[in-house]
Here is the input.
Amino acid sequence: MRRILAGALLGLALAGAARAQEQPLVAALSRTDIEVTTGFTGASLVVFGSTEQPIGPGGDEVIVVARGPTRPVVVRRKVAVAGLIWVNGPSARFAGVPGYYVLAGTRPAWQILPEDQRQRHALGLDALPLASTGARSPAFRRALLELERDSGLWIEDSTPVEIAGSRLFFVRLPLPAEVPTGDYRVEVLLVRSRQIIAREDLLFRVDRVGAADRIATVAQVQPLLYGLACIAVAALAGWLGSVLFRRG
Amino acid sequence: MQVYLPIAEMSVDAFLLMAIGFGVGWLSGLFGVGGGFLLTPLLLLIGIPSPVAVASGANQTLGASVSGLIAQWRRGNVDAKMGAVLLVGGFAGSVLGVQLFALLRRIGQVDLAVSVFYVVVLGTVGGLMVMESVRAIRRRRSATRRKLHAHTWMHGLPLKTRFRKSRLYISVIPPFLIGAGIGLLSAVMGVGGGFMLVPAMIYLLGMPTSVVIGTSLFQVVFVAANVTLLAAVQLGTVDVLLTLLLLVGGVAGAQFGASMGTRLRGEETRALLGLLVLGVALSLLWGLLRRPENLFSAGPAW
Here is the structure.
């Protein structure tokens, strides 16, 4: 992995040097397909690239933000009924919540961008546009952020974008086993004197493959067939067990 | 060894699932019940979402009960006619139950409903079993026999039929209602219902103990199949990989349990099972009463 990365960085550096005049920022992903098999326990992918001007203290800054597919989420708050039993009470429904959100920068985004820019580009968990219906309290939004952070699917400034030499950068994005499947977008932003001066959009996909994919697809497309198959498989396993153990 | 469950969309240790299957299978072999009432709470405990735990639990119960049914059928311990009546009720009940479950999921109270059902049903059944078996152990000492057959209001109902294997001449209404009630509970709780059906057949219907286990397995297999099918079609929450991993351990465990069960006396077995059922009910009750660590929870919106 390290060697591949080093080679890729070198190749990119050479290519970058040749094109440096016309492009202030070049970026790429170490892989564009994450395959979720039945043995999937998480993966990671590296965002890397080079810039025309030196990056780091005193120079340009790089921000990397990755977003996963969105889905609606309901946040519920438990309340004690009659001061005794805890049941789900008020709820807030958030539409379009990204199932994955990672923000990393050579420095935290709030240090290198003006607040209005940061809000407009949704750089930072507190800047995510999360419109909700239902319960109004801001506690629901806070709880959503906390729950997503705890699940390891929302990460903000946990590891900085690293700088190699003065024009190469890279950052590793962790993809835990719970990553949702679908299309992901990675934005790489180049910041100079508190302005975004260049950006690059990169895409990757997380896909179920092999048995995991076939099972999920059949369950979704042919639910009746899948249900019958589940019954047959379970009955067969039970029968097989009784036969095996009677002999043994 | 981590395995990614395609429907639950999470990664779980396969050996942990097999061990849970083995433990539950061992107990079910020992006590002659499906073991779903232990399995579903355990699955919830390791973080399987409740819709998947309930549906896959029913699927696992089906597999675990098939081997028992085959053995009982061979010995002629299945009252197919009584089983059929229970089954018709069971189908009606499980259709209702799956609708109820879908409704609960929409309003966000699945976890509460599953817990409350467990606490109430397991608490009642467990309490009754312990009381009854303690009384039976006492009676054994004092050596007085109870009346074999008592006539109650149930014998005045219409639609009377003869159930030859059970040596009963009763109305089909009580078994139908019992079947429907248990079908409903199995859909919401992800259990086959054996632990409720066995006492119901003995004490409510007055069936002889020899045919009770076989007939209950007959009903459980078909009700669990129906719940599996309905859950797969309506909710899409049956995880076949989860089911299979549980079955691998469960089938082996059931054999060990069954061979051990033959060395225990009936009353002691029932008392132990009753205590186990009560224990599960109490731990779930504690989960409802304790102040949750995080008051907030997030889930997919439907």
The mean pLDDT of chain B is 82. Residues 2-146+170-289 of chain B form one domain.
